[in-house]
Design brief:
Strand content: 5-15%
Structural class: alpha/beta
Strand order of the largest sheet: 1-2-3-4-5-6
Number of strands: 9
Distance between the termini: 32 Å
Oligomer: single chain
CATH class of the largest domain: Alpha Beta
Bound molecules: zinc ion
CATH topology of the largest domain: TIM Barrel
Number of helices: 14
Helix content: 25-40%
Length: 335
């Protein structure tokens, strides 16, 4: 996830070269800048291509104003309603409009590249969806679907937006740790947006039900690299109706990442004969369990004869990674 605003083309180029030269994690690069640079780097375009900002800084683009725009910290509240001074009525900032999104998507399609747009606020996601639909009008929906494009964060998606994402074949790259850190009635999201809008955020279950591919992400360094913490946070969502089952969260944290990177064509992301031997070995306290997240319908049989693969008990200690193998090469080994 590189770009001129967060790093440099040299930085990404060096990382990709290092990843190719040394045994280690597989790196898929994204460049949030000029498309010619992305082509030269062999990267996707976007990877957090900023459509808006963040809720913490009141720069995420909203349909309706921030609940606390006139109050809050001195740096944002000072100076009244003057230009560049977010005050009462502040709806955040859009860095791209729908025509710019559309133009990027069309260019990317011509170059065979995937795009990834950063959209946190509901108005930012409107802009992204309008842009993709305009692009579909120009080059046809099948080419949009073939691109398997991604939206990073999409934290405020409503049912209509989720339906549009599904129709466009967009992958939602989501950060359950954001809900763990800033969700809930007393969290930062509730301060910024009020309880109603905050309670509807990060609707993972609705996205999964609509057929939107989900991939879990840390957005490191925004939250730590902690994949089990992400799985746990997706299951223990502040809004229970938005939570994923442990199995769905695990799939989104593993196979979902390969799908989001369009790197699943060779079977990567699955433990199956013929798939690349890329996997982690975990040391787990206690037995594996088939976990049912709450009192809702038990979607997975807990009868051992159903042969549903178990997972670590998410209420227990975090599993320890004792071996990591990438395409048959051991890159980390405590065994
Ligand atoms: Zn982002």
């Amino acid at each position: 996830m590189a770009g001129p605003e967060v790093s440099s083309a040299d930085d990404l180029s060096d990382l990709l070269a290092l990843a190719a030269a040394e045994p280690g994690p597989v790196v898929h690069g994204y460049w949030a800048g000029e498309i010619d640079t992305a082509v030269a780097l062999g990267a996707g375009i976007g990877g957090d291509l900023f459509v808006d900002g963040s809720l913490g800084s009141r720069t995420a683009a909203l349909r309706a104003p921030y609940a606390d725009a006139a109050g809050g910290d001195a740096g944002l509240a000072g100076g009244g309603a003057g230009a560049g001074s977010p005050a009462a009525g502040n709806r955040g900032l859009l860095h791209l409009d729908a025509d710019a999104v559309s133009a990027t998507v069309v260019q990317a399609a011509e170059a065979g590249l995937q795009t990834g747009f950063h959209a946190i606020g509901d108005a930012a996601l409107d802009t992204v969806l309008d842009g993709f639909e305009r692009a579909a009008d120009k080059i046809g929906l099948p080419r949009i679907l073939a691109g398997r494009h991604r939206v990073e964060h999409c934290e405020m998606a409503d049912a209509a937006q989720i339906a549009r994402m599904a129709r466009l074949g967009l992958t939602a790259v989501v950060q359950p740790a954001f809900d763990a850190c800033w969700g809930g009635r007393d969290g930062m999201y509730a301060q910024r947006l009020g309880a109603d809008r905050a309670g509807a955020m990060n609707p993972f279950a609705a996205m999964a039900a609509a057929g939107v591919v989900l991939a879990l992400s840390s957005d490191a360094p925004v939250t730590p690299l902690d994949p089990w913490g992400g799985v746990r946070a997706a299951v223990a969502h502040h809004t229970p109706s938005a939570a994923l089952s442990a199995r769905a969260a695990f799939a989104a944290a593993t196979r979902g990442g390969w799908r989001a990177a369009r790197a699943d064509g060779d079977g990567s992301g699955l433990l199956a004969p013929g798939a690349p031997a890329t996997f982690a070995v975990w040391q787990v306290a206690g037995e594996l369990v088939v976990q049912v997240p709450d009192s809702r319908v038990a979607a997975w049989s807990t009868d051992p004869r159903a042969a549903v693969a178990g997972l670590p008990d998410l209420d227990g200690p975090t599993p320890t990674c004792v071996r990591t193998v990438v395409r048959g090469t051991v890159i980390h080994d405590l065994l």
